[in-house]
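[job 0412] stage=fold_complex status=start
inputs:
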Amino acid sequence: MENSEKNIDLLFQKKFEDFQPNPPESVWEKIKANLPKNPMGGLSGTSFIKTFVVILILAVPAYFIIDRLGTKNITKDNVKSINDSKFTTNNTQNLIEKDISIQETFSLNIETEEKSIPPVKKENTIESNIKKEIPIIQITENNIVTTNTSKVEKQNSLIEENELLLAYLPQENEIITSKNKEDNTFEKQINIESKAEVAVYNPVREKKGYFTFGAFFNPEMVFYPSDDIPNKTNLNLDLSISYNFSKLFFQSGLGIGLAEDDGNYNIDFERYEFLGSYEDVYNVTFDSTEQGVIPTFHTHTVDVYDSIRHIQISQTQNSYTYLQIPVFVGYKINSNKFSYSLKGGPSLSLLVFEKIPEAILPSGNISVININETNPGRIKTYWYFMLSAGIEYKLNNKISVAFEPTFRYYMKSAYERNYFTTKHPFSIGFRTGVLIRL
Amino acid sequence: MHSEKKIIEKCLKNDTKAQESFYRLFAPTMYGVCLRFAKNRMEAEDILQEGFIKVFSFLKNYRSDGSLEGWIRKIMINTAINYYRKNVRFAKEANIDEYEVKQNINENVIDRLAANELLKIINTLPDNYRLIFNLGAIEGFTHKEIGEMLDIPENTSKSQLLRTRSILQQKIKEFENK
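[job 0412] stage=fold_complex status=done
writing structure:
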């Protein structure tokens, strides 16, 4: 009997072993419509990094090109009028010493014929304490600086913002002679055939240093390449303060990072449930009829209950708040309304708040046997390194808006090791905000 | 095995092409499973669709130490059970008496029938018998496993499978005599 049953089962199994009919095409269309779409447009994490690096590589030279386009050029002919000049002034050396910092920012260019510089007359003498607009030539051991609209008001002349400056770096074969060192009068002769490089530079805000204050919002997507988990989306808000000097800047501040995880609880429980009912015979009576004795069964319905064991998964949404303390160093190039920057540095993340909801228990009269928490654990402190390339647009002299694609490389995973194997997750974000110059 | 891993990785990144390849690889086998568990083709398609959506949703949980096909099959079976669970009453067996328990069918009769013909017969079974027969006789689950899956006592599973076999034999006979 049992063998026969087994044989029948085997016959059915054999019959359906290779039973593989093709489902209608409409089934796939319906499945496809219900599947989540890739927010990255099918771009994998690795491809995204490659794209980011390529953009970065292209962006950096672009900054310099844009910066150069903003430089005004002058001709050799124009330079000639300066080159052959002899200058005499009582205070020139003093001027030079006071403005050496300006010379550091000059860019160099030559060969075009677009801009003329007022020629400096030979034997031009600048008397101290005069108050009129005249070209000034400043000579140091290494270079010459001239302005066309400077105001000489004192012995230590002040160079105002937006004035036109000329920089000159002397070559090996130029001659510098001093006519009279005692009264600070001297003569400079320059060989026109030397490879003199001259440029005009329009410095904007050449103060020694200034602070900017910023407020930013940065959504980011975190990738765990070694784990089969969906990419995580974090939100970051931060207040930053930067100290800018020359083209370098240091930035720090405080940020808040908001992250969420799916939490799971496996709830093992028993519930007292209705299983069914049966007719219980509580009495039998016998009636004598012409056909014989007929029994009558008196019954009532009895419901059957029992404790049934279940396992149910309760899903929760856990939220975490991190305090972020970054220390960045960067390089910034100003060009009219826009500034371009590249910055990087470490940041410390501290878990300051976490909200992990309790498991939602099933309804009814239940007896919990075990609750197994499978929530991914997060570590309290971790470091990451951030790199960003930003662009700022000046709304006015005080306020700018900034846009920065960011790349974060985590020194270790935000999760405890027993959950995920990725040692160094990374994230791509887009930081936007407002900067106020203090 | 390597390409299987690769296709899973792509599916996890929601690559639509990879998902379609994955579906086309397993859909025929799983559709066969669904047709056995379902009452008709329309319900089988619903189960297949729901099952594959679950497969793609939980693919991140699949660990490569087991058979992928086995894992997908288990999801399909669970989907089918859930599909019929609300309509199935195992404790109260309706219309059972109309089937006499007779174990006298010739096994050659079953052998002569094609899978499609057997499928038609299985499809006519009441939901609870069809589920238990598929789980016990074809998928090879034990009565203890069936009991856990369907939330019924082990003995119920045993008795109902026995009865289902009898019903099937009777139906096969009827089919032969047509």
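[job 0412] summary: Confidence is low (pLDDT under 50) at residues 91-101 of chain B.
[job 0412] exit 0
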